[in-house]
Structure formats: C-alpha cells, structure tokens
Amino acid sequence: MKKFLIWLGCLIAFIVPVISVKADDVSYRIPSYKGHLSISDNSSATFTQEITYDFESDYHGQYVTLGSAKPVPDGFYISGNPTVTATVNGQTKPYVRVEASELSDGTKLKVYNQGHSGDKVVLKVTWQISRILNLYSDVAVLNWFPISDWDKSIGHVDFTVDGLDSNKGELYAHAGFFQKNPQVQRTDEGYNIQFDHFPAKGKLELHAYWPMTPSLKSKNSTNIINSSAKDKFLKQENDIVRNRKIYHIIFYGLFPGLLLVLFVLAIVFYSSVLRSTRPPRFPKDSRLYDIPQNLAPLVLAQNVYNQRFDISGLNSVTYPISFNHMVQATILDLIDRGNLSFSQSRGEPILEFVKSDGLADFEVAFIDMLFDGQSQVKEKDMFSRYYINEGEIEGQYKKAKNRTERDKLRSIGRNIRSLFLEDATRVTQGVENQEKQLGLPSLYRQLTPSETHLSSVANIMFISLYVLIAIGFFLLSIGFSSNLSFLYLLIFFPVITMHLIYRLQINGRANGCLVPENSDIYYQWHSFNNMIKSIGQFNQAELQSIVLWNRILVYATLYGQAKKVSDVLKRYNIHLSNPSLDAFTYSPVSFAMLNNSTALQNYVSASDTVSNFSINSSSGSGGFSGGGFSGGGGGGGGGAF
User: Fold this and answer.
1) Are 250 and 341 found together in one domain?
2) pTM greater than 0.85
C-alpha cells in the first residue's frame, strides 16, 4: 500500500501543475475592451486599444503588452513610442508617466496612474505596427492574435478591423476550439467582432484575406511571395471547422465516455471482490460474559484477528488491535501466570523474571526481547536492546562530511530494525507453532486467484483513468488553452477518492478474509469485547458474578480497555487472586509503566527513521505564447498593479 500511495502522490504532482502564486493586492475588473486595427496599403497598421478598468482597491497603475511572438510576417515591427492617454472617472489626465520595456517577444508598457478603490479608468493606447500582412500574388493575409495574455477575464470585447476593401475579402475570428465562436459582422468600412465574457489568458485570433490590389502590389512589391494563398487560406478555415467538430466529439463525447466506462467497470470488479470476501455480519451489541478460550494474547491476536506480531510492529498497526496493546497484554498475562512479578523499589516499577514453567517458545522469545538476558528490568530499561537515540544520530548525520559517514549512521538504524525483525519473527513463528499444538482452526483465507485477478484488473483500470485524465488535462490546458481542462482536473479527485476507498478495503482483506464456517469463534470474541467495553455500566450484582477478573484484565488490556477495567476494580474494591497482578492493578504507577512499554514501538519507529535519513535539497528556476489556431502570431495582454 505504501508503494501505491507513493506512486499516486507522484501522479498527483504530475497532473496538478505547480503554480507560482504572486501576491497581488490590486482588485479590479475589466468590463470592456475595444480594439481598432486600421490597415494601410503599405502593410502597416494603426492599432488602438481602449481598456476600461473598474477598481475595487487602491492601485498604482496599469500595464499593457503587445507581442511579436512567431510566426509573424518578415519585417513585423512594433514602434517603440505608442501614444497613451488615461481617463479617470471621466476626466482625462493631462500627463501620465509611461515606462516602456522590451520583452523577448514584444513590448510592455507600465502606466503609472495611481488611484483609489471605486475609480473607473479608461486606458487608450495607440500602436504603430509595420508589416502586419503576409502578401501573396493573389491575396494579402492577416494572421494575428491581438489578445492572449490578459490577467483578468474581459466582460465584453468589441474589435474593429478596417482600412482595406472588405467587400471582396473575408475575416474569421477564433477564440479556441472549446470557446464559443466570436460574432463577426461585415460593415461598410470593414469588420466588427463581438465577444462576451472573454476568459483570462484566452486568445482572440484574427484570420483574414483581401484580394491583392494594384495599390498593395505597388507599395509592397519587394515583399510579395510569388505564390497563391487563397485556396490554402480557405482550406485552413475548413480544417478549423472540421477539427473543432472532431475535438468536441473527442473531448465532450468519446473521452468522457471512455473514462466513465473504465470507472464503472473498475467499480464493478472491486465490488465483486468485496462481495465475495464480505465478512459475516454480527449483532453489534451482543455480549458474552464468559471468556471464549483461554488463549495467550499474541495467540488470540494472530488466530482471531489475523495480526502477526512482527508485521504489526514494523507497520505500527493500530486496528483492530494495536501493537502496543499486544505487548502490554502479554506482560500482564505473564504476570498473571506467575512467570513474571511486579514490584516497586523506591517508587520505581520493576519487572522480575520468576520461572519458565509453562512458557511456550514464543513467550520465551518475548521475555528475551523484554529483559535482554537480565533477570529483572526497570521500567526505563524494558526492550533496551532496541534503544536508539534518534536525535543524537540525526545531529551527527547533519554534521557528517561525506557519504561514508552518513551510510555508517544509517546502518545503525538498519541494524536495530533487522534485530527487531529477527526477534519478532521468532515470536511470530512460535505463535504459529502454538496454534498448531492447540489445534486452533484457521479463521482466515487468502484471496482466490479469481479475486486477485479482478482486483488487479480494476487497479489497472484506475491507473488507466489517471493516465487518460492527465492526457486530457494537458492537451486541453497546454495544447488548446481551454478552461475545460479544469473539468478533467475536477474529475480526478472523486476518481482517486473512490480508488483509495476500494483499495484500502481490498488491501484489508488481501491478508485474510474471515472464513464463514469458523466465524462463530470470531463472533464469540467480538461479543466478549463488547462486554468489556460496557463493563463500566454494570451494576454491582453483575460485577460480583464475574470470577476471572485477572484474565478479563489481560484481555481488556489487549483491547485497549485496561484503564476502564482497573477503574471498576478500584471503585468496587475488587481484588485479584494473583497478589503480584493485584499489586500491579492498585499501584499508582503500574499503568504508567504499561504506557511506557510502548517504548518498543518507538524504538522500531526511530530505527526506521534513522535508516532512511537523507539530505534535503531544493532548487528553483520567466512572454507571449506563440502559435494560434490558424498558425498566426503576435499576442497582447495586460493588467494592473
């Protein structure tokens, strides 16, 4: 599961682009953008922009960019001295400071026009552009996008193109394969383009042709390409219309349909596995007052709850029985059976080994882990062979001068981890032998080959979903600059949520599915656990009917209910038949000692951390985007600061 989550995290990092967020305190809207392109016979043009800003905060000024991103005609040039005027709340300012800077593919104007929240600013910029047309033997072609990089969406775009004879030419406007088509109207002077709710970073591309006239030929004789272009132009527009339909079919129909089919099939396959491995249902509130079997805690955990001592320790398992509770219950069990004794010396809890009579092999191995060859152990020295000073080693690791020194320090953690795994495996193998000696039935089975196959196929389908969503997202966001890409991003989150839910359930059953024919044993322990959980609500008569309080305390510790049972014993002054266990129960420091027995888990965790120490490193690394729908260049954007 850990590898799966790591892989999934990498995929999320791949799908979700890393966006650098720049702090910007300026709040504003752009309700209107008016553009006017007047083209002359010599292929030059006057381009006027009139942008309306509604400010909702104080501001320092505005900025406008005009690009020359390729492909643009040879000789395309933007004059460096545009005319700028600013009108604030209906009053034209007599002077505004303008700072012009050259970009790698265009020009940027910063207009220092400071004002306050509530201002309406109309910024008018007039540019002079040379060689805006591609000239052929039969037609003059405009292939240019004036809008591409505005920081905010624009409420309404009104764009006019004139200067050449519109009666014999044609103009097309494009805003993207997944945006609505701009409205283009032929006028007496030229063409008018209208577009409502133009998106931020959206592109408006103008693609037009005019028949080659004697005036155009005479004034541009050295720049005319000796080939025809009208048929190519019309074919290009037909291709745009056809491709638009194809892309809509793919991204609105086929792609979502494929995603839906894969998603549904994956859910069906996962659900089939979950149905066939569904555990029997038991009454939630059933109680059993007698101990079902007199089993050692580790045997109970492995046989009834399918929890191995070694795996639980390495993976910090907490459900249904935590590793720490397995350790604590085993210590109490050995005290109850007289193999260990509890005492206090100057208020410090001490565990002492008493006898080996009746100990199984796994219990001998556990005691060896606990005492490390000693006959008695203080609270702070329990499981001392696995102790590792994580903080000290981390400090040494940071000061290490070379890889050899770092590897040596990491090996300390690996050695401790290996030592624990070796000892814990010996305990687990002993538990398995004990199960066989006692003739305990197996309560769990592995997934069948059919169930494993269905689960694997479903997993592959989800992985395919992630790949397809990533492809769709990047094609739409980068290839087509479409906001539809965010819909694919939104699809990703419910898909990954469902995948994680099903994978967690499948993984929980992959290590063992409860066998129905032996489920009555599980049900008995389930009911006994319910009784322990509710023991604090018993009346005195019910409590007096309980005889084996010492064993109940052991199992209550395994279930994480030790304090609840201890409180009942103290409240009703109930004493245990085992003097050592009774002294333990009534000692004010006994359960603090039990809590400190979690040191084993902490040592294992620390060894894992140390063995994986690493040096963190990070590194960090700024135009217009070229290429329009019909192959045009240019670009234009703006905002406020």
Assistant:
1) no
2) no
